[in-house]
Amino acid sequence: MKTHDTIIAVATAPGYGARAIVRLSGPACATAVASLFTTSEPVLPIRRTILQGSARLPEVLSALPADLYFWPAPHSYTGQDMAELHVLASPPLVELLVEQLLKAGTRAAGPGEFTLRAFLAGKLDLTRAEAVLGVIEAGNRAELKQALAQLAGGVGRPMQELRDDLLNLLADVEAGLDFAEEDINFVQQEELLKRLGKGMAQVLNVSRQLKQRAVSDKVFRVVLAGRPNAGKSSLFNALGGAALVSPRPGTTRDYLIQRLDLGGVIAEVVDTPGWSSAGGTIEEQAQALSRKLADQADLVLLCLRVDEPVSAEERQILHQEQPAVLGVATQCDRAAAPSDLLATSAVTGAGLDDLRLLLAQRAARQAHPPLAPSLSRCAHHMEKCLEHLRRAHAVVLYEDPPEILALELRGALDQLGEMVGAVYTDDLLDRVFSRFCIGK
Ligand SMILES: Nc1nc2c(ncn2[C@@H]2O[C@H](COP(=O)(O)OP(=O)(O)OP(=O)(O)O)[C@@H](O)[C@H]2O)c(=O)[nH]1
Ligand SMILES: [Mg+2]
User: Fold this and answer.
1) The whole model's pTM is what?
2) What is the CATH superfamily name and number for domain 220-367?
3) Which of 134, 212, 255, 299 is most buried per CB count within 10 Å?
């Protein structure tokens, strides 16, 4: 794993915009930047600094306004000298800038290479490096919250304490081995059992939490919502349900649930009573129920009849974040559908395959949160660690040779080490960091 060269990547999303960030890490950072960046202050900063200046690029006559952010080693994300050039986000300009920096002795970074360097420099443990990825890939607030908790040390930290405990225990056991002839016991059997029991309880606890978080066994729930007569029940039926449909608004008075197999992913579709401002008590109750159901949904499908204007309230709902809302134009055989909505018709079947696919994608995403690979990797190490501790416990209980106890303790520690990346293989790092995007 090479870390002594200087890597470069565009850290912002491609395309036009207000800002593009070109990121560098490595010993040649400052000299590479100095090859094109000029400012009134000294060009080679040795302290953490932000400089306003300009970048001179070949083939471009005028200077490009640029800001330079510089973090000297070791107080940077990667632990190395790091720099960022912030420039106007114009793809051809950014391309020229990168080309120039590559010529000045840098190399294009691979996926996740900045975070890999941070890990190798001991800035992050492996579970937190994976959490960086989880934060980037989070598709909703719940996923973001989980990834941020892990980034803050949610999994690694309790394990650090256990690792210290086991290391101390191993040291005591190994010290005893040196004095085996004299028959001195550094730690009494009862004390050993107590310490191992505490460790097992801790591992079991973390292991249980990890497993719960890695798989979401909650069925993805889609709630059809919208005004009366929008065509909710018809869409529900077209997706596989069996609801009453009629031209009379307010046909649906109670909710109906249908489980659908969307190509291997199971989802639950709920038909609800239509929302309207008018209505007596039954309508009011039906609507209150309908809104409550929408609140409990993973996704609300807001049905908007193609031949009726979208109201201000509906527009507001479309932008709601929690739960997520997807607007679909219904009854699109009656009129041309607006381009910004998925067009469907329960009569002709238009758009239904696209809708099913979209629902399947969302459901699959919920079933496999971005952090799942990290969580199940950790859960695997926890399980193995627990097996070693159980055997260690039995060794003490049956008064087997202390050499075997030391062996099991080392096995347990290796598992903890692999989990946080204190013990790692190139293969493991490859697997973790190849999932990252370039520039992170
Ligand atoms: N042409 C056409 N008519 C449709 C379509 N979908 C529904 N309709 C008609 O629109 C009317 C209302 O349909 P429903 O599915 O009952 O509407 P709803 O949103 O469930 O209405 P409520 O249960 O009253 O809230 C019925 O007369 C349906 O036949 C469609 O895709 N094309
Ligand atoms: Mg209905």
Assistant:
1) 0.59
2) P-loop containing nucleotide triphosphate hydrolases (3.40.50.300)
3) 134
